[in-house]
């Protein structure tokens, strides 16, 4: 029942979910730090289950409900959600929440933040970039508004920066050490995703196509 989306917000459960999400993020930070230090760290099953359930609940609560999205932004939930995208343990769920934020009214900043993660990621982070582009593709296919927002927040430049960072990845025998350890199928998969994203962003959008032709393709 869609009424309960408003009920959860009005009685304060949305803020409780954000607090749970922040605790889950801290656990993932501790796990990442331990792994980087070569130490053992295992999340408790109940913590993983709670984190997953909270993310699934928030995805449903954000769907087609701009008021919930606004409350989430006000209580710092969006920053936490974007931070969770970097962790493989919950990336699928985190991107699902980001997708709903982008599709809601006022999602321009969320799209810009997600695109910024592409540029700040290391050149070898192909999996992260592929997952982000896949989520963006879903948003771009949804509506005219998201395709317009994509242009306004510099989406074309961000996505093209992936191609710049992959320069020399298909040189065959003269590959640099960076690319020689990455399967060619993964490289081609990301390239396909980049071209697909650019194409969908321009589909049925003359303003986007003109912008790409005049401002981006000439660079």
TrEMBL record:
Keywords recorded for this protein, A-Z: WD repeat
Listed Pfam families: Arm_4 (PF23295)
Stretches assigned to the Alfy-like armadillo-like repeat domain: 126-216
The name this protein goes by in its record: Alfy-like armadillo-like repeat domain-containing protein
InterPro entries named among the record's database cross-references: Alfy-like_Arm-like, ARM-like, ARM-type_fold, BEACH_domain_protein
Classification via Gene3D superfamilies: Leucine-rich Repeat Variant
Source organism superkingdom: Eukaryota
């Amino acid at each position: 029942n869609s009424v309960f989306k408003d009920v959860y917000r009005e009685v304060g459960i949305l803020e409780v979910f954000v607090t749970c999400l922040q605790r889950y993020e801290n656990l993932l930070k501790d796990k990442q730090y331990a792994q980087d230090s070569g130490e053992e760290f295992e999340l408790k099953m109940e913590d993983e289950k709670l984190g997953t359930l909270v993310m699934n609940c928030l995805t449903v609560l954000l769907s087609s409900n701009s008021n919930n999205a606004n409350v989430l932004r006000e209580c710092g939930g969006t920053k936490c959600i974007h931070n969770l995208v970097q962790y493989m343990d919950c990336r699928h769920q985190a991107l699902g929440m980001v997708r709903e934020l982008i599709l809601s009214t006022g999602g321009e900043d969320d799209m810009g933040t997600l695109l910024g993660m592409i540029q700040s990621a290391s050149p070898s982070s192909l999996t992260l970039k592929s997952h982000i582009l896949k989520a963006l593709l879903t948003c771009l296919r949804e509506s005219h508004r998201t395709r317009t927002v994509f242009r306004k927040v510099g989406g074309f430049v961000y996505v093209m920066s992936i191609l710049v960072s992959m320069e020399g990845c298909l040189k065959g025998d003269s590959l640099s050490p960076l690319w020689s350890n990455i399967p060619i199928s993964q490289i081609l998969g990301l390239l396909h995703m980049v071209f697909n994203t650019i194409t969908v962003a321009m589909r049925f959008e003359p303003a986007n196509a003109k912008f790409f032709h005049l401002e981006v393709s000439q660079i």
